[in-house]
Amino acid sequence: MRQHVNPLSINFNQIEKIPSLSEMFGNSKLNLHLDIGCAAGEFLIDLALVNTSWNYLGIEIREKLVKNAKLKVLKREIKNLYFVFGNANNILNDEQSKFIIKNLKSISFNFPDPWFKKRHYKRRVVQPEFINFLSNSLRKGTLIYIKTDVKDLFDYMDCTISSNVCFETIDKKDFNYSKSFNPNKFKTNREKYVIVNQLDIFERIYIKI
Ligand SMILES: C[S@@+](CC[C@H](N)C(=O)[O-])C[C@H]1O[C@@H](n2cnc3c(N)ncnc32)[C@H](O)[C@@H]1O
């Protein structure tokens, strides 16, 4: 399977139909968390099975991974988890996704693709226009979590989000994880790899003010 796809390819201009919250989830009233670039969805499956008072939505650009993840959800009859295939930037910017943005309690960007070459920076999922769009659309109090093992990418994402006046950094020591989307501090696959290989992890949490 291809490790990287170019999110700017026209293949991703067409967006799949997004169902309503009540079609996606057993109980559409639960807190909603969105994980962007959720890969095969194992992290969200772990979360959804344990935290039944949250709904989880994953967006992933590699179609095969999303197909497999959807099959796992069906097989395990998980009612608080849904996966969407496509480029998260296009999907969330689309008119039909407005209701998702309005209902979010939090968003995570876990180990996004770094796209090291400068001419590829525009392929990174965190873009100033996207953060600007989120700042205009998210409800006050919505949290954004970023995590990466690439310092340069962290600095870039941190600078992009922090320079938007609608987001404030939350000090990690003041943060109550037990009330978050991930009270058990489950790890994504990339995070497990990073820990095993004793690499650094750079992370930050922001709140929409
Ligand atoms: C390095 S992997 C990290 C996967 C997972 N979050 C983790 O921590 O293990 C980045 C993931 O983001 C996906 N991705 C990259 N750009 C995307 C975009 N614009 N929209 C949705 N998914 C994207 C990639 O296909 C890949 O699965």
What does this structure look like?
- The chain has 209 residues and is α/β, with parallel strands linked by helices.
- The chain has a single domain (10-208), classed as Vaccinia Virus protein VP39 (Rossmann fold), CATH 3.40.50.
- It contains 8 helices and 7 strands.
- It has helices spanning 21-24, 42-50, 63-75, 88-93, 98-103, 128-137, 151-162, 189-196; strands at residues 31-36, 54-60, 81-85, 104-110, 143-148, 167-170, 202-208.
- The chain has a 7-stranded mixed beta sheet with strand order 3-2-1-4-5-7-6, with helices on both faces.
- The radius of gyration is 16 Å and the shape is globular.
- The chain starts with 20 loop residues before the first helix and ends with a strand.
- The mean pLDDT is 96.
- S-adenosylmethionine binds next to β2, α4 and α8.
- S-adenosylmethionine is lined by residues 7, 36-39, 59-62, 87-89, 110-113, 125, 188-191.
